[in-house]
Amino acid sequence: MQESDEIQKLVDEISFRKSNSKDYKKMTIEQISQELRDIMKFEQESMKKIEEFESTQKNQDLAKYAKMICKNTTQREITQIQEIYLEKIDKNYLNSK
Question: H helices within the chain, ranges in order?
Answer without folding.
Answer: 2-19, 29-56, 60-93
